[in-house]
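To: structure subgroup
Subject: Chain for Friday's discussion

All,

I'm putting the inputs and outputs inline so they're searchable in the archive.
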Amino acid sequence: MDAPTERIGYALKNFFKEAYFLSESSEYLLKENSAQGQSELTLTFTTDNVRNLCIEDVDGKKQRHSLCCGFTNNSKEAALNKAVDHAIFKMENSGEWTLHLIEMKTSVGAKTWAVVKAKQRASYLDMLAVAVFLGIKVKEVFAYTTYGLDKMTSEFENANIAVKKPILGQKIINLLKDEWQAGKLYLDFGDGPLEIKHKRVKMARNENESVLKGKLEI
């Protein structure tokens, strides 16, 4: 159930850096600027008068200062130093909380998908830790990937074999059919893949504009 307002307020004031969360709003314009291009996502909510807590530029914040505690393994193999672009905690009408992790890409292919999954896994752990600081319990987690160009089908056929190779003892997961097309994401935590719901968000450029734009309602 929902944590008391006083508990969340105390956490925001005492446990987090100033302005770490955006001011609560019924709509956010979330942006991503990278070497591959710019993206803008208009995020709105399906329910009115519910709380939401939005962390913009999670990836940038994590690069500047650790989102989580200082005990995590920062090796390249663990990939726990990565993060998605944006994260939103949303309180549902039931009073329960859901977590929404958004990664923004110009295009998505098999190799890019492996990067997306690594970011989602690291942020899944980070944000559950943040939820403890906030005093809330997350009922369900949702993942999103915004993109302008879908390269998954063609790139999957030519992807490095390491991308396709299943972890020993685990089921073979076809990145294209079982994840990208099926609306699912499988994250590895060592005890079998954890399945979470995933939504593709197609973005588009208006004529004479270089920015990819799209909309998402959660």
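Points worth raising on Friday:
The longest strand covers residues 138-147.
Residues 14 and 131 are 14 Å apart (CA to CA).

D.
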